[in-house]
Write a structure and sequence with these properties.
The chain has 441 residues and is an alpha+beta fold. It has 17 helices and 14 strands. Strands 1, 2, 3, 4, 5, 10, 11, 12, 13 and 14 form a ten-stranded mixed sheet that branches. Strand 3, helix 2 and strand 4 form a beta-alpha-beta unit. Helix 1 packs across helix 2 and helix 3 packs across helix 17. The radius of gyration is 22 Å and the shape is globular.
Amino acid sequence: MKLDKKLAICTPRRTPFAQIAKALGPYPGHHLGRIVAEDIIAKSGVKKDQIDGIVVGEGFSNAPNSARVIANLIGLRDEVPSITVSNNCVSGIEALSEAARRIVLGEGELFLVIGEESQTSMPFVVKNARLNKKAGSLDKLKKLLPDNLPEGVELRDTLEDGLGDGETSYGMQVTAEILAQNYELSREITDKLAFESFKRALEASKAGKYAPFIIPMKDEDGTELTIDEAVGLREGLVENPSRMGRAMLLFENPQMKFDEFKTKYSKYLKKSHGPTVSIFNASPRSDGAAGVILTTVEKAKALGLKIEAVLSGWKMKGVDPNLMGIGQAYATEGLLEDTGVKIEDVDYVEIHEAFAATAVAALVQIEKDTGWKWEQKFDEKKINPNGGSIAIGHPFGATGIRLVSNAIMDLQEDPKAKKVVLTACAHGGIAGAMLIERFEG
């Protein structure tokens, strides 16, 4: 989708991203979103009656229509449309796209766009209990737990279930290893991307580059979190890079041997060379929220808003669910085709690092299709120059808006830069890409 009239992105703000069940654990997703929404309104000076709608991206909502709950909590007008969109890990990109569509269709001029996720709040559930008379009520269920559940009634972890649907797709970590094998990615190259993510994010955080975007948050003990929690926790890893190679492999350990992996997933493996996906080259489980104002350029000027960048277009594209991460390549290529932009004219790329393997495989595919030398660009810090999801964290619905903030950071740091492409993949095989440009006017 190429926008005939580019839309203004204003007031990018977010919480620090925190480790699951740690600093931000007490906050449900919509309360993280509320905090970001209130901060954006206060920082921008926009009056609540000037907001035409709110769109929230959340992979796994903790509230019925989180957008409406947030709108009510922060006191927006009752008539303001509010919608929550769920598209797994690209929910934030989808939310910004949805707001743009509504502006293009004339349904409003100024939208509050939030991406949020509390993985901590994702519940453990008892599945199929109501189908069995012995477990059909909470009281009956409590009597049966923990050892006497009837056959067919099972306890489930919704977070684990959310990483693979159990019917058409494997878990996301499996899809990452499949890509690593099929694209012949060495552990060294995936560890290189992951280590640089940690190093760049730590350096950027220490230099205060993220500070203008982050809302300081206090944990239950009153300790203030001003940088992304995982970034601080991995400082020792940055100081001792050899730890990368010693990290536990997900598919070569006492629970699973790589030969078992090859047998179990042989349908999708074109070739194999050895396990690569580890706990250090995968994004951590996280909580957090991010947001922006999306509006017309004219409206932004009328309200005195600082236009940080403009949205020029986007592309959503699907691939086989079990080759999930590669969708980033095809969504990016589709975006460039739709907008008439050549990859050589893109100054920076912000790519979601669900796993190092998914990011690298997508970059390799783009190089195969276009000749664009991704590793050279990465070494020149034209790809994820301030770190990515492996270091920062990945609260599903928030990541897309976090990528927008990082794109804005790229434009701020490099006065010559004009175009940034951001892209992310999602469970189920959907991927999204956006073109963010410097505002000149």
